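Structure tokens please, single chain.
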Amino acid sequence: MAKRINSTSGRNWVDSENGPMTAPAPTVLAANPNADLYGASRMFLESVEGMLALGWRVVVSIPQPTGPLLDEIAERGGELRPAASPVLRKAYLRGLGPLRLLGIAVRSLPAQLRILREVRPDVIYVNTIIQPLWLVLGRCLGIPVVCHVHEGEASTPRLVRKVLSIPLLLARRLILNSRFSLSVLVDVMPRVAARAVVIVNGVPGPPSVEPPRATLEGPVRLLYLGRLSERKGTGDAIEAVRLLGQRGVDARLDIVGAVFPGMEAVEEDLRLQVADARLAGRVRFCGFAPTVWPYLADADILLVPSRTDESFGNTVVEAILAARPVIATRISGLVEATTGFDAALLVTPSAPGEIADAVARVVTQWSQFREQALADAPRAAHRHAPEEYRSAVAHVQRATVNGVNRSARRPRSCRS
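Here you go.
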């Protein structure tokens, strides 16, 4: 007999043991730490779409009441229930940080309990490791939690990585976005390996691939996509443009992205760097863009100059899908993201001179790199097919719910 589900939805769904059923569809509460549309949040949107494709009820809780991610979720049919939630940052591990984090958690607790009481989810899907309260509440209330880990920073002190990973012990299942992320996690928390699975990011491609320019007439068009920050190496991309100018290579750089709220000084410093180097006519700050394809279509080469570990490289994949050569730093997940693609070059982190060298090489051998980029695009589309990703993430949720239901039906053993 099928267990009655706590959802209020009335859709049909498919039980892995009994086939099609007319019963309330399972409900998933999906939590994300922010409402932007950068890497991990874009994958969250794909995950939500995969669960909606099952016919499930998907209720999304995000601390911010507005943002581009919320608009996209509503358009796809997800229910929105914004609620305050503590988001774990490294700053909370220093000084009075733990007390401040505890205070935020206490203030957030009533709202999160109210959502759980009203939604009555069959499973909680937590995106990233920085929302620990959902994992704690799930364990306390007997609701299985699936946590999707997008973090992988081997350069972070081991003790800090271990502390940040402790809440993952409360999760029923773990999804990791790369083999590198898995290795970083297992290094400090080997007990979770048995419940972890790697699902490579599914990255939607452009509506159509616009081939790169046949010849590089005029300046070479460089592009940076992502957060503006020191760890992302935005300043190194700007310095590379200056060095290229000294070598007689005419280059332009579009910077597409924004800073975290409260970090506006980072952008001010970058703009000052541009002014000091007299690059005002060569570097353009474009701000955040909800879609990157127009910028990639107009670009010749994407720069991904991250200085510290990246768990993966969504922007790398986006450029390859758009048939554009990529110059990325030789670190962690970026190496994994570029493996197998001929039009991707790797350079040393924090070495703008090497970025400039790589740009000059691509310019000199443009015909070759152009053909390689065109050949890379369909391979990337196959490897990172969004429908495969959505199906894989949804399968983990379904297996988790079905496993709980089977456990509930299984007779308990008696001991004398």
